[in-house]
Amino acid sequence: MKIIVKAKTKARENKVERISQPTLLSIGQTELVIYKVSVKEAPVAGKANEAIIRALAEYFNTSISRITLVSGQTSKQKVFEIK
Fold first, then answer.
1. Are 56 and 82 in contact (CB under 8 A)?
2. Residue 26 has pLDDT above 60, yes or no
3. Distance (Å, whole) CA 28 – CA 50
4. How far from 67 is each of 44, 55, 64, 82, CA to CA, in Å?
5. By CB neighbour count within 10 A (0-12 exposed, 13-18 middle, 19+ buried), where does 23 fall?
6. Residue 48 in contact with residue 7, Cβ under 8 Å?
7. What is the CA radius of gyration of the chain?
8. Runs of H (alpha helix) within the chain
9. What is the rounded CA–CA span in Å between residue 47 and residue 16?
């Protein structure tokens, strides 16, 4: 499953919110859902991305190793794949 994440760094608390319904893409007709993920870490040296992965793992009740950042390494909008 792939999801779109809108990242919010330097937040007061770590939080994951679902903010949209599934969207159909023209490529392969894959459903994508948009989530807003707030993390306390600053976007320095990949620390925020690591914190987002930890927050998503907790939210989806899965291990960190099952979550991969597909695109958006330095962007506020990212795509993650959850296996």
1. yes
2. no
3. 28
4. 20, 11, 6, 5
5. exposed
6. yes
7. 12
8. 47-59
9. 17
Distance CA 10, CA 80 (A): 20
List Cα–Cα distances, 34 to 44, 45, 62, in angstroms.
24, 24, 18
Domain 2-82 has CATH 3.40.630.40: no
pLDDT tens by residue, 39-61: 999 999 889 999 999 999 999 99
How is residue 61 written in tokens? 């009740």
| Domain residue spans of the chain | 2-82
Contact 1, 78 (CB under 8 A): no
Three-state secondary-structure class, residue 64: helix
